[in-house]
Design goal:
Layout (H helix, E strand, L loop, with lengths): L5 H8 L9 E2 L14 H4 L19 H12 L10 E4 L2 H12 L5 E6 L5 H8 L2 E6 L9 H6 L5 E7 L11 H10 L3 E4 L24 E6 H4 L8 E6 L5 H13 L4 H38 L13 E5 L6 H10 L2 E2 L1 E2 L10 E5 L4 H21 L1
Helix pairs in contact: 3-10, 4-5, 4-9, 10-12
Length: 378
């Protein structure tokens, strides 16, 4: 059995034969799209005097956890600092949480489509991923479909809200579905607060006290600082603290984030809103361009995401997905194929909404022209 699904592995390891295309609509790193921090903004907090002290704590220093709790409160996601565990990245936390909840041979429920983060982690732990359907055109948790996927060795259900890449977010009815399933819930909320619809979505933290729960976030999306490698999970269990304490034990085994980074974390989170606001403005402008393009090109469908940094385009079935991607590439436009996220049915591609507006507008114009030309020839 290959260590990774071969198609996803090929996408991640192939080197493009040509230089990057001028209209790359896959870019999301803040520094690559003009939304990063300057050295003058980012580096001074690292000189905090506590950064030179090594005072290991399996959950992360309390001052840093308190800063995270204050930040989450601004996103309508209230939690107790004592519930938090800090680590160098959400991938690291997912591994520790799933290792706590499962044994080799167990499985966990994951949304399909979904971001390909957990494949390697699951294989490393010797567990299986059992996909449950999340319709990209009408996303919601279907209680019957979800329960039908539960097997005798299913140990947890994973949910992403806001979802990457379709931009769906949990509603109150969805939280009821998760609570009634009776499994531990692991919720990825790294894109929380980047909403395109009125009002904040309910956080999975509302399930606290009902089921064993871990809700994840991180500095990469919260403050647009992916290189600083800090993530957090609020962990709770109706039966006590064993879930959190076991994750903490694993954290103590593998050690944690560098002291200077943890000392700087409160200041970065205090300064994060101006960076987040700039990104939200960029996304709003690109969404307006997307809506105008869809109006001008009826063969193209693009459900408006409720939140997040991405848009998905549903393309006419006159070509298959790879053929569409190749056609766009011939016009110097790069997009992400839907199969990377396990989309089913109609061909789809995924676009980043955080690329510079001029690049996004021209790339999307070229996509529209390609679609019109292909459809008119058929």
């Amino acid at each position: 059995m290959p260590f990774l699904p071969s198609r996803r592995a090929d996408f991640g390891t192939e080197r493009p034969p040509n230089p990057p295309r001028a209209f790359d609509l896959t870019r999301t790193l803040p520094d690559d799209v003009g939304l990063g921090w300057t050295a003058e903004e980012c580096l001074p907090p690292l000189l905090h005097e506590d950064g030179a002290r090594y005072t290991p704590d399996p959950f992360g220093p309390l001052h840093a956890r308190r800063a995270v709790a204050r930040f989450l409160a601004t996103l309508d996601a209230n939690c107790d600092p004592e519930s938090l565990v800090l680590a160098p990245g959400t991938s690291d936390l997912f591994a520790r949480i799933l290792e706590t909840l499962t044994d080799p041979g167990d499985d966990v429920l994951v949304p399909e489509p979904g971001y390909p983060l957990l494949d390697m982690i699951a294989r490393t732990l010797g567990i299986a991923l059992r996909p449950y359907p999340l319709c990209p055109d009408d996303p919601h948790l279907d209680a019957a479909a979800l329960r039908a996927r539960v097997g005798p060795r299913t140990r947890a259900v994973l949910v992403t809200s806001p979802h990457n890449p379709i931009g769906w977010r949990l509603g109150l009815d969805d939280l009821d579905v998760l609570a009634n399933l009776g499994l531990p819930v692991v919720a990825d909320e790294v894109f929380r607060g980047y909403d395109h619809l009125p009002g904040p979505a309910p956080s999975a933290l509302r399930l606290r006290g009902k089921v064993p729960l871990a809700v994840l976030g991180g500095l990469s999306k919260a403050a647009l600082l992916p290189g600083m490698k800090v993530a957090w999970a609020s962990i709770g269990d109706p039966d006590g603290t064993r879930f959190r304490d076991t994750v903490g034990l694993l954290s103590d085994t593998w050690l944690g984030t560098a002291s200077p980074v943890l000392a700087a974390l409160p200041r970065w989170l205090e300064d994060a809103p101006k960076k987040r606001d700039a990104l939200r403005r960029r996304v709003a402008e690109n969404l307006a361009t997307l809506r105008a393009t869809v109006i001008a090109c009826p063969a193209l469908t693009a459900p408006v995401p409720a939140s997040g940094w991405y848009a998905t385009l549903r393309l006419p079935a006159v070509l298959d997905e790879d053929a569409w991607v190749a056609a766009f590439a011939r016009e110097d436009v790069t997009v992400t194929p839907g199969w990377l996220f396990d989309f089913r049915g109609a061909p789809r591609v995924v676009l980043s909404l955080v690329v510079p507006t001029a690049i996004f507008a021209e790339g999307l114009r070229r996509i529209g022209e390609v679609i019109r030309t292909v459809v008119d020839r058929r």
